[in-house]
Amino acid sequence: MLEDNMREYINKFQTLALAVSGGRDSMALLDWFCQNVSKKNFFAVTVHHNLRGDEGIRDRDFVVNYCKVQGVRCKAYDEDIPTFCKAGGYSLEQGARIRRRQIFAQLVECGEAQRVVTAHHMQDNVESILMHIFRGSGIRGLRGMSLDDGTLLRPMLKTSREDVDDYIKRNFVPYVDDSTNKSQDYSRNKLRLSVMPLLREIYGGVDGNVIRLADRANELCNHLDGICKGYDNRLDGIFIPLAVLQGDKVIASYTVINAVDEITTRVDLTQKHINSILDLAEKNRGASVSLPFGLTAYRDEDGVVLAKLQTVKIYDGCVKGYGDYDLGDKVLRISAEKSDSLRCDMDKLEGCDIRNRRIGDVFKRYKGKSKSLGDYLTDIKVPRRNRENIVVLAKENEVYALPQYEIGDIVKIDGNTRRVAYISIIKK
Q1: Measured between alpha carbons, how far is 427 from 236 in angstroms, rounded to an integer?
Q2: Torsions phi, psi for 364 (to 5 deg)
Q3: pLDDT class for 265, splitting at 50, 70, 90?
Q4: What's the whole-number mean pLDDT along residues 226-230?
Q5: Per-residue DSSP letters for 371-394?
Q6: Is 364 in a helix, a strand, or coil?
Q7: How far is the C-alpha of 408 from the C-alpha of 390, rounded, in Å?
Q8: What is the pLDDT of residue 403?
Q9: How far is it between the farthest Cα atoms of the chain?
Q10: N or C: which end of the chain has fewer CB within 10 A?
Q11: Residue 46: helix, strand or coil by DSSP?
C-alpha cells in the first residue's frame, strides 16, 4: 500500500521538498504529505517547462493554488526549456529532465531541503530499466531508480500504479491530465502505451521479474562499488592513477563511474564517455575530453583528473588574524596551533588580500628569486586549468603566500618573529 511504503522512508528527514507536476502520482504524494506530515517539514516544488502553452500554465497554477488552499509553501520555477535544449544540444525530453535535476540538486546543495521527494512508482521504475536496456546500458542501468541518491528520495518505488489509483479514489484527490502523456512522440510514452501492454500480455509477471533483475544487479553493483575506489579526492578534482586506468577494464570502468559520482550526477554518462576517459591513459599530458554536466577529464603526469571547471571569486576580504576564512568549497585555515602545514610570520601576513591571481602578480619564493607568478606556477608544473582558482595572499601585486604550495620569502620566520602562523587549504 502507498501509505505503508511512504512511512518507511520519510521519518528520518526534517525538511523535504516535493516535486509536484499536478498529475495523478504527484498529487497522491502531495495529498499523503498534507494528511500525515507537519506542513513545517515540507514544501512543494513545481517546474513550468514552457513546452505546452496554456496547458502548462494551467498545471502550474493548479499546483500553486492547491498548495495555497492547503497551507503548503510552494516554489514555482518558470524555465525556458526550448532555449536550454538548443544551447545544450538536448532533446526536449532529455533537456527537461536535466534542468529539473539541476533545480532539485540546488535545493539540496543550498540546504533548503534534505531531499527532493518524487512520485516515481514501481511501473515507472520498470519502464526506466527497460529503456536503459534498449539504449545499451551496462549493469548499473539494470539497477533502475535508486530509493535515495542523496538528492532524490523515491518512497513510492515499491508502490504499484494500481495502488496509487486506489489511493486517489479513496481520498478524492484532485489532479490534472497532461495531454502529452497520450502522445507517442516521446519514447517513454511509446513504451508505456504500446510496448508494456503487449509484454504483460505475453509475460504476465514482467513487472515483478524486471524488479527482481534490478535487485540482483543492485547487489552486484554494491559489491563493485566496494572494490572500485582507487581514486583520490584532491583540491583540483578527482585523481585516478594510471595503474588503475590501465589495469583490469571492469575495475577501471567502475572506478571511473564512482569517481564521477563524487563530483556530480552521472545521468547521461555513457560507455562512450567512460571509454574516452580510459583512453586518456594512453595520451600525452594535457590531453582532455569533455563530459556531461560541465565535467572535463584531463591527462595528468601520472593519471587522469576529473574536474568541474569554473572560475569563482575566492574571497572578498583580507587576513585579519588567526581563524578560518570561507572560500566557498574550501576553507583557508590560519592557525597558531603547530601543524605540518606551511608556516610563516603572522604579523607580516596580516593585511594580505585573499584573492584569485591577477595579471602582474610577482612572487619571490622562500630563499629564491623574484619572478612572475605565472612563471613560478610553470616551474612547479601547476596545470593551466588549475591556475585561475589558486588562493593568493598578496598586497597589491606582491604575492606573500600561496597556501596550496609555498610561502614567499617576505613572510618567512626570522629572529624578529613574535607570532607564527600555520596556513593550509581544507576542502569542505
Answers
A1: 10
A2: -110, 110
A3: low
A4: 90
A5: EEHHHHHHHTT--HHHHTT--EEE
A6: strand
A7: 15
A8: 94
A9: 88
A10: C
A11: strand
Cα separation values, 92 from 45, 51, 127, 184, 186, Å: 20, 8, 19, 14, 9
- Tell the residue number behind the cell numbers 535508486, with chain if given: 146
Element (H, E) at 325: strand 323-326
Q: CA dihedral defined by 81, 86, 90, 93, rounded to 10 degrees?
A: 30
Q: Does 389 or 64 have the greater pLDDT score?
A: 64
Across the chain, mean pLDDT equals: 89
To the question of pTM greater than 0.85 for the whole model, the response is no
CA dist., res. 274 & res. 68, Å (int):
46
Predicted pLDDT of residue 307: 85
Q: Are 98 and 144 in contact (CB under 8 A)?
A: no
Whether the CB-CB separation of 149 and 105 falls below 8 Å is answered with no
Write down the pLDDT at residue 44.
97
Residue at grid coordinates 527532493? 116
Q: How long, in residues, is the chain?
A: 428
38 CB contacts (<8 Å, ≥6 apart)? none
Residues 335-343, mean pLDDT to the nearest whole number: 94
SS3 264: coil
340, three cell numbers: 605540518
pLDDT number for residue 139:
84
Sign of the torsion angle spanned by Cα atoms 261, 264, 265, 271: negative
Contact 92, 100 (CB under 8 A): no
pLDDT tens digits for range 344-390: 999 999 999 999 999 899 999 988 889 999 999 989 988 777 787 88
Q: If DSSP codes are grouped into helix, strand and coil, which group holds residue 48?
A: strand
Contacts of 293 (CB under 8 A, 6+ apart): 264, 265, 267, 268, 308
Rounded CA-CA distance 219/143 in Å is: 9
284 three-class SS: coil
Which residues contact residue 303 at a Cβ distance below 8 angstroms, ignoring those fewer than 6 apart?
239, 240, 241, 242, 244, 245, 281
CB under 8 Å to 317, separation ≥6 — which residues?
Answer: 325, 353, 354
Distance CA 95, CA 56 (A): 16
DSSP assignment letter at 41: G
If we measure between CA atoms, which residue out of 6, 32, 1 comes closest to residue 171? 32
How far apart CA 113 and CA 250 sit, in angstroms, is 36
Residues 6+ apart with CB under 8 A from 359: none
Say whether pLDDT at 5 is over 80: no
The model's confidence at residue 329, banded by pLDDT at 50, 70 and 90, is confident
